Amino acid sequence: MIREIAEGVRSGRLDPVVLVEEALRRADESQHLNAVVHLDAPGARKAAADHPRSGALAGVPVLVKEIIEVEGLPFRCGSAGMDEVGRRDAEVVARLRAAGAIVIGLSHTHEFAYGCTGTSNRVGPCRNPHDPSRMTGGSSSGAGAAVAAGIVPLALGTDTAGSVRIPAALCGVVGFKPADGTLPVDGVFPLAISLDHVGVLTTTVADAAYAVAALTDLPVGAGREPERLGVVVNEEYLNYTPEVGAAWSDAISGLSTIDVRLPDWAESFQTAADLQGPEAAANHAGRDTSRYQPDVQERLREAAAVPRSRYDAARTEAVEITAALDELLHEHDAILTPTVLSTAPPIDAVDTPSGAVAVRTSLLSNTRLANLTRHPAITIPLPTTGLPIGLQVIAKDNDQTIATAHWLEQRLR
User: Fold this and answer.
1) Potential cystine with 105: which of 39, 71, 93, 126 (Cβ 3.0-4.6 Å)?
2) Residue 223: is its pLDDT beyond 90?
3) pLDDT per residue over 142-197, tens digit each?
C-alpha cells in the first residue's frame, strides 16, 4: 500500500491533499480510541498543498509517537509533568519528510514509553480498535491503534522491551523493530539507551520493509526463503492462553521447523530489566516526577533501587546472552515465537497491583530478548476469528527477518 501511494503521488494519479484530508477525517472519526493525541491539520494541509510529488514516501500520511520530537508540535511524552514544544525534528522525522511523507500528528504513548499497556497517559488510555474496552498494549499504543483503524498506513514507534511489537500484535498489524542502529534514536526521549530502538508499524511486511528502506536508503528484505526455521521450545515462551495457543499451533503445524531452546528466559528477562531500570532512572533524575502517572512513578522508584553492581553485571551478561543468540541464528535462518502470550487484556485489568503485574508479564515475556541482544524482530498477525494474535520472527539481520516474515505472511494467508 505505501509503495503504491507514493507511486500514485509521484505519477500525479493521487493527490496528496486528498490523502491528507482522508487521513484527517479518519482520525476525527476514531477519536474514541485516543490513538492520536495531537492532530496537526494546518501543518499537514500546508505540506500537502506544497508537496513536490517526489520521494520514496511521497504523500504518505504518517503519525509519529509523541516521545519523538517534531518541530513546532507538543513534546510531552504523554506526561502531565512535561509541557514543551519540539524545537527541531528528530533525525528519523527529518528523514520522513525528506522521503516525502506528511506528518499529520502525534500518536499516543504510555507515559515516557515506560509501560507496555498503553493505559497511562495524560489524556487517558488508548483503546483497541477491535474492542475499545481492551488495551492496545504499549508503549507505541497509538501507533498500533491508528494503523489498525486505518487512520494512517504508516506510524513511527519506539521499542525498548517490545513497545512496537506488543501493540502491533494486540491490534493485528505488522510491527518491525529493525536491528540496532538501523533507524536513529537522535531526538527521541530516551527510556534506556542500551535497549532503545525506533521501529515502524504498517499493515503488511512489504510496507514495513519499504518504509525502513525509504528511511535508510538501504534495500531491506533481500534475504532468502528460510530453509532452517527454528521454533522456540522454552516453556516460558509458550505459557500462552488457549486462544494464542490454538492460533500458534495452527500457524506452525504446516511448516518444516526445528526445535530451538533460546537463552535462559529468566536470566534474559532479569538482565534486560537490570539494564532498563537504572538507565530509565538516570534519564528522569532531577525531574519533578510528582505529576507522573502512578505506575510510572512506582517503576521509577523501583528502578532507582537497583544497585550499581546489578547494572554492571547485567552489562556483562548481555554480551554473553547476545553471543548465545548469535550462535543460534548462525545455525538457523530465523526463530519463531508467539509475540504476546495473550490477546488484548481489558483496560481495567491493570486497576489492581496484582493484575498489573500479571498483565505486564504476559505482554513482555517474549519480546524483551531481541532488545537485549539488539537483533531485528518483527511481529505479523496470525489468522484468527477472535482478537488479534501475533507471531514473532527473530533473525540475524534485517534482510533475513523481513524475508522470513514475508514468506510466512504469504503462507498464512
Assistant:
1) 39
2) no
3) 999 999 999 999 999 999 999 999 999 999 999 999 999 999 999 999 999 999 99
Cell numbers that stand for 230 in this block: 527454528
CB atoms < 10 A from the CB of 130, how many?
18
Question: Given 3.30.565.10, 3.90.1300.10, 3.50.50.60, 1.20.910.10, which CATH number is that of 1-413?
Answer: 3.90.1300.10
Cell of 178: 529493525
Active site residues per annotation: 65, 139, 163
Q: Residues 2, 202: contact at Cβ < 8 Å?
A: yes
Whether the pTM exceeds 0.85: the reply is: yes
Checking if the pLDDT of 217 tops 90, the result is: no
What the block records as the C-alpha cell of 214 is 525509504
**Residues paired with residue 307 on neighbouring β-strands, in sequence order:** none
